[in-house]
Amino acid sequence: MLLDEDQLTNCMRCGFCLPACPTYAETGIEAESPRGRIALMKAVNDGIMLPDAAFEEQMNHCLGCRACEPACPADVKYGQLIEQARDAIEDHKQHKPMVRLIRHTAFHSVFTNPKRMKLMGQGLRLYQRAGLRTVARGSGLMKLFPKHMREMEQILPDAAAKGVAEQIGTRHPAKGERIATVALFKGCIMDVMFTDTNIHTVDLLTAAGFDVVIPEKQNCCGALHAHSGEGEGARSLARRNIEAFKQAGIDYIVSNAGGCGAILTEYDHLLQGEPEWTADAKWFAERVLDVSDLLVRHGREICFSKNVNKQEGAMQEEASGSIRITYQDSCHLRNVMRSSGAPRKLMRQVDGVTFVEMKDADRCCGSAGIYNITQPEMAGQILDEKMEHVKAADASYLLTSNPGCLLQMKLGIEQQGLGDKMKAVHIVDFLHEHMQN
Hints:
About 50% of the residues lie in helices and about 10% in strands. The strands form three sheets. It has a five-stranded mixed beta sheet. Strands 9-7-10-11 form a four-stranded parallel beta sheet, sandwiched between helices. Helix 19 (about 290-300) crosses helix 21 (about 340-350) and helix 23 (about 375-395) crosses helix 24. By secondary structure, the protein is an alpha/beta fold.
């Protein structure tokens, strides 16, 4: 196993990472902490121990939330180390035939091909709209799947047959004087399951003074590949995205998904071993901003009001007439992109809204990409604790900035029977709903 020696030795074993780590908080086991996992990585890297099943299990138990990085006084790049470790594990892992087929289909056939992603979305839409979902649930077919999979199926949003570019086009002029030209990173899952959020993102950006382009040749960001030991797949996707966005003539690249945005900002690290890509990867990474950051830092202020486009069946208001909202941080947005203030500033700008800071809003919700599918027990424990803080916030809307977090929060609301009191919404959709034209 070849890992970054400098990062391995930078760890001072001070323990500042321990209270920041969700899995250590749940178990109290040293090996479940960033410090403990780094010690295991170094032991394997130095040939002291073998990368056996127990080692692999500890690496896979990590959420990859990277809350340890802001807490680390030595600035250890833990996220890079865990990705390198998983990559090395996959290089020597002998999966069962069915697992190999699933991984190959997901990582090499679907996520790498926008047309196949679109077909997957169309298939899911057919399942949801043609009565097949009702049949599957009513016939008991869903009972063949594990409980956590059945629960996730129930809270999936309706898929779209067409993505954002197909629905509204690829170029959108700013309203009023142009401030800059930005390119929307539309994502893969994002553009299938949350197409309306992409459309709303364009509306917010043009209202704030940005020309928006949507590069047609962009593809998956590569985050799922990088987090799952498919390093070369992540690098291939990065090269293709860099080429697509370099040709767009833009000032900024905007993301509305914390998980995607984080890896986009690290394309320079991802391709650091390829000198021919150094300059372009740096150019790309330096231009990536989350939509909230872009609006706050560079956009014209947008007027928001609680009474604009009020949704049918809106949640209850306080006696003062104010709507209570709270916010769950996207781990990668906060810990990698280092953005937490901008979303809160935007929420506070909505007239007639009371923002309530939730306890431990910066702690992972347990979604972590596909962690809630691959590690359902730990993800469930983390979600249960999170929902105690959600209930204490007593808000009508629970906002977040990442699709995975949004689904996990919807799942928690469903499990706790809070659906008649609270709604989980992407911050972009909430702001769009209250935007004054």
